[in-house]
Amino acid sequence: MGAEWPTDLLDVDALLARGFRPVPFQQFVLKVHSRCDLSCEYCFVYAMADQTWRSTAGRMPFTVLEKTAARIAEHVERHGLPRIDVTLHGGEPLLAGGEFLATAAATLRARVPAPVTVGLQTNAVRLDEELLTTFAEHDIRVGVSIDGPAEAHDANRRFADGRGSHAHTAKGLELLRDKRFRHLYGGLLCVIPLDTDPVRTYDALLDHEPPAIDLLLPHANWTTPPRRGYGDWLAAVFDRWYDAPTRRTSIRLFEEIINLFLGGSSRVESVGLSPVALLVVDTGGSFEQVDSLRSAYHGAARTGLNVFDDSMDTALAHPAIAARQIGTRALADACLSCDILDICGGGYYPHRYREGIGFRNPSVYCPDLTRLIKHVAGRVHADLRRIQP
Ligand code: SF4
User: Fold this and answer.
1) Residue identifier of the C-alpha nearest atom 7 of ligand 1
2) Secondary structure of residue 280 in the 3-state scheme
3) Any idea what the Cα angle at residue 64 is, between residues 58 and 70, rounded to 5°?
4) Among 344, 373, 376, which residue has the most ligand 1 atoms within 8 Å of its CB, making it the best to mutate?
5) pLDDT tens readout for residues 281-322
6) Which atom of ligand 1 lies at the shortest distance from residue 339's CA?
């Protein structure tokens, strides 16, 4: 490991000796193309601290795809996993071409001895009828990144020449909603546009009739802190969504906070204390941690392991991956004494980073998480009191 690694790395051998048992990976992100056709302001792959994309291959070579499928199969077999999820990611995955994406889905399903859900996350700029017909044939679900109304989206999500991409993305979404392809529609991913009215943003997303929306906090940490106001922004969207006479879409962040408040466990990384069971395979076959760690520092997502030389069980024992599986044991003292710890869970791991210290800090979004969680809990609590005799 390089000198840039944080100083709070875990001693995994000691953890194992004390009874820590890693949770096998069940979600895999395959970076099938390392380039993108947009130049988004906030992109953690191209615009932030980590610049490793400069040295990675364009499209994932077939040898890497084959070996990745074999490694996943080995992992599934060893742990008796009942099913797995694979996301074909990038850069921009559509740059890999329909034929490659179809081959990726077919290869994974042929090799892995369990059902495989295959999806991709795209900017939809290149989404057309031919690609969607291929995705329908290979049951590949499509998630689309869009940041609300045109002016919000185009402020960040631009082509290299400065043109906004909203019109292209909206056109792709219109095709995806066609009755021939609607069943492939996974949902929308929106990086919160703080300068745009929250309700207007939510209503603009609803125009695309998404089955689900993921609202993401922009990547930030204590070394490169965010602006303030995200908690208020999210609380306003929550009220619009929660008070609607009919539920028109699922918003995962809100549903998970309610679920945790009612005593359940979380299925997302951004809240709760559930172990993270996700592994990224880079275009060249390297195992990486969650991609958004690239926002912290150069090389932050690296593990030094790869599909050709290492099993996925070896990646499970990597200190930085173990840190995201051990729940409260990885948290800062301030989080351990926090009254909403069970719901917040210390926030999304990359948001905890501070140069010179590492990740054992509260989330840099702590005030926003506190505002949102207390708001959601207050609304749900009031409703529960109303229906109790
Ligand atoms: S990040 Fe803040 S709100 Fe979350 S558990 Fe830590 S102290 Fe509590």
Assistant:
1) 335
2) strand
3) 155
4) 344
5) 999 999 987 766 766 776 777 788 999 999 999 999 888 788
6) 8
